[in-house]
Amino acid sequence: MVIPFRRVESAAAPWVRTRLRSAPGAALALALLVAVTACLAAAFPRALERYEDAGLRHSVEQVPPSRSVVQLYASAPLADLPQGRREQALRPATVKRQYDSILGTVQRPFVPDLGQSSYGVTTSVNQQVPDRWLPRPDALPAKVALVAQAGLAGHSRLSEGRLPRVSGTVTTATPEVEAAVSTDTAKTLHVKVGSVLHVPGAGRGALVVRVTGIVAPRDRDGAYWATDPLLRTPVLTRVKPADPYSARYWVGAVLLPPEAAPALLGTEGRPYRYWRLAPFPDTLHARDLGALQSALASLVSGPGLHQVSTVTGSLTDAYTELDDVLASYSRLHSGVLALISVAAFGSGTVAAVVLAMAGGLAADRRRTELALLRARGASLRGLAARLFAETAVVAVPAGALGLAVAVRALPGARVLPAVMAALAVTVVACAALPLRAAAAHRLVRVPALRQDVTSVRPSRRRTVAELTLVAVAAGAVVSLRRQGTSDGSGDQLISAAPVLVGVIAALLLVRLYPLPLRGMAGPAGRLRGVVSHLSLARAGRSSASAVLPLLALLTALTTASFGGSVLAGIGEARDHSALLAVGADARLESMTDPLPAGLTDRVRRVSGVRDVAAVSVAYQAKPNDGRRTVPVVGVDPGRYAELTRRTGLGAFSEGALKKGRGAPAAGAVLPAVASPSVADTYGSAPFPVRMEDGSRVNVRIVTVRDITPAVMGTDFLVVDRAGLGATAARPTALLVTGPEADGHALREAAAGHAVSVHLRADERARYVDSPLQAGAEHLYTAAVAAGAGYAVLALLLSLLRAAPERIALLARLRTMGLTRPQGRRLLVLESLPQAVLAAVGGVLTGWAAIRLLSPGMDLIAVALPPSIAPLERAPLHTDAWSLTVPAVAVVAVTVGIACVQAWWAGRRGAVRELRAGDTR
User: Which DSSP letter does residue 299 get?
Assistant: First the structure.
């Protein structure tokens, strides 16, 4: 009588312990694979969150506090109110109570930084002081702003004198108050301890302001001082700011104690109360971006402002540019996240396939055992449950270990996303073996039946599943091409589009894989040697379940090619943007005077410099004596034409500027290269141009180019420098060719002169100004590297699956006279068809994915910061190295593993492989 499988629980030796003891190496390998994969999966969301938070804080901290601080202000009570009520509204106790009420109104996640936030009373109109000892640049008296801001003692260090204070109760009629000034104000306006300022009064005598102390800010760039920079630094202002020739006067700030604020009512300054809330950087999190924008909108122009107005007065208003800063970061974050999602889907898919392959390898290794159990009455559900428990004993502790390592290595992020990622890895690892075994042993059958790839036909269910996947992939590709990733509106299906393209290509190649094997088997059989025919026969006899290894390889190769092209595209965009900004590898320029004599020769002698093109740029040249100015660039035609060809910026031939050139005499017409806008305005007929030095030249546009290295912008004229006057032809800039030019030596050569030095390498380094951009590049690189590593692992697993059979085959063939070199060639040739198929398919699939998806991919968000965007768009292009290197690596690894297997089989000998009872 056969005992049902479900009653075996009473056996003395438990199933799980017995199986783990019988194969400790396999259990250890599975634990290592799960631990590493779980660690990587858990680390990805934590690293991404850290980069997102750092990018948000950087976006807020890099702007001036005047943009990031939320400023609320309310005018003083109306003049028709009793004087006592007006004075009471400006006293520090009242303003402080209103400040506390505002803090209670602010909604999280906007958290004010109490250490940098401020409040007080100041004048809205700067007051002109008649004191003659103050500096007067253009005979105009200086003006001062009277500021009574709380917290001066805690945010400054006393440099001279003492802090101001009040005696008694200050009112509108108080004749004299004390004040302090910053060290910059004291130095610039010649203020000393004991200096007296007379501020004109309103309906009363002048308010005497006596300076009792000079203070130095503790944090000059903090929000307390920098929200209104006038507090620490006086400003030289023009009467008419738009007129560069109008008269100038100084404006400074004097700092009164908060108790002296009512005295401002006795001046014409029209005082008002203000409350400045600086955001606390440590509380800014990208995950709260939407809620932060809502809280900010409520405080500035919504219910929050209405609630504040009930305490501070109906005329309370608010202003901030923090919402613009957050909106700019949101656009950057959306573009970056879309690109990172593409890498995450690719690497995650390859990792999942490798975990499935590990389960498939274990199922194949135990195929005979599981078939025997099914033949003896084991239920499919009970068998799957025991296999799940057996795997869980190993995978669950390994997944927990990987999660712990990721959490410990990357602190400061949420734990839940990491837990979910590690849990997903663990579940896949636990379910791979039971599902694979259940699918293979769903029906009780003879275990010796072969499933050759050349003989087994795909089932209808598989065909339907493949067609469904093709439809989903096609929809994702079309969506990505139409919608794109630059606006950040792409969903997860769009991010998975490159992976789906690789999956479809893998399924297609698996369908086509048997055809060349069948076609080559016949010709190979007619060859004299047996190795070729036998290797093709062995490749054709490989299991039809080898779809998964090919799927892993193709997906990994597609992801690596796509990711490598993305990284290469980011680098190209930054290089090209830096080239547009500098015009060459280095640029030495004087904006006012011509370059000193001998500088060109000194620059040519600098190490790494290959060539130097001297140009003269007249930025204020006026064609046709009109008001419009067009930069006129005088160049040496030969060197400059070579520079344009080398950089690819508006290349033209040397003859374009030399053709028809006359002597620099009156009436000579110089051929010119112009921008499209200038060419459209002045046409192809000769026209005069008045240079900055007053000389005139006649030019005729003969060539049109969109850009030129010497100037940035859409307007320019390039002419032969020999046709200009002596003054206009003197060089004002040097364009240096040489990526390895010594920047320090270039600066030393220009030292002592008013010459600026710009290096292309320095300009390129400026383009990664956000931690989110740098983090996105690092994550993408790590994802591509992880995908490549899992691809190699997939290749190893696929070859290890057939290793025992191959070793046994070599042992048998050696007894028949097969030499070791022939055995090595046999294993290599047997492994090559699938490796070559994966390599060629990976190259074609990667190229096709990039070509299909490039119209919807824009790398500008990752490549360039929002504040510096010389390029409007950075499209995705194919990168030859990214396509070929991974494919060649797959073939090389396959050949290497086959050689190692042949060498190992030779060392083991044939006795063990040919022992009696061998069932392999």
Answer: H
